[in-house]
Amino acid sequence: MITFSNFDSVFDDEPKWYEKWWFLILIGLFIGFVNGFWGGGGGMLCVPVLGLLLRGDEKRAHATTIFVMLPLCIASFVVYLVEGFVDWSLATPITLSFVVGGAIGALALKRINNVILQLIFAFVIIAGGIRLVM
Amino acid sequence: MWVWYVIASVLSGIIAGMGMGGGTLLIPVLTIFFKIPQHTAQALNLFAFLPTAVVSLVIHFKNHLVDVKKGLIISSAGVCASIAGSILAGKLRNEILQKLFGVFLLVIGLWQIVTALRSMLAKPKRKYKYKVVIGTKRDLDRHK
Prior knowledge:
Number of strands of chain A: 0
Helix content of chain B: over 70%
Shape of chain B: extended
Distance between the termini of chain A: 64 Å
Number of helices of chain A: 6
Structural class of chain B: mainly alpha
Radius of gyration of chain A: 19 Å
Structural class of chain A: mainly alpha
Helix content of chain A: over 70%
Order of helices and strands of chain A: HHHHHH
Oligomer: heterodimer
Radius of gyration of chain B: 20 Å
């Protein structure tokens, strides 16, 4: 007997519920609100969602996340700017160093064990969270 | 003093460049160690993201890695919500926003631990060495 169970995804052109446009709108609203309210972190939510939408293609998920996050960050930054929360004397050194670090990180990406790094990152974040909540 | 800013930002940039959310690291470093107000730190993080994002987007576009259609739908909804979120954040007092940010960090951190452990424990998914795909070129592209 021939079963086609292994080929389901090949012939299945019907979009899944998370591929419908209303889900994209909902997730966009959620990511946008989080990123505007906390000034960051939207990308961390966007990457796994896009990973699901793009069927596990991580490179495309990361690239599309930047495409999504750029207008969001510009929009929120303009609001913060209008409300007078921008300190230009700090913006220059921090942004320049952030750019340099970003280049290093992108180049080093392939050489480091990501899971260990993710765990270290998570514990640092949690320590910071506890410190801020206290 | 600014040397420490540089060190902190380079480290956060490295994490960001690896695609792990450098912003969620930069903001607490700025507020905890440098005593910068929460709103200012958030604005700084948003600004710091822009130049890197533009450069890497150009590269990604050249490599055809951006899904423009899905991206546009998500970001058009996101821009509206992010303006609302920013205005709401601006209305809150510094201490309150800082506490809420701490809660956000705790949630993100726990979630990161869960995903890290899951990817550590995950079994390799592929059962077969080869996969036969019959269909048009579009189907083949989708199932590379």
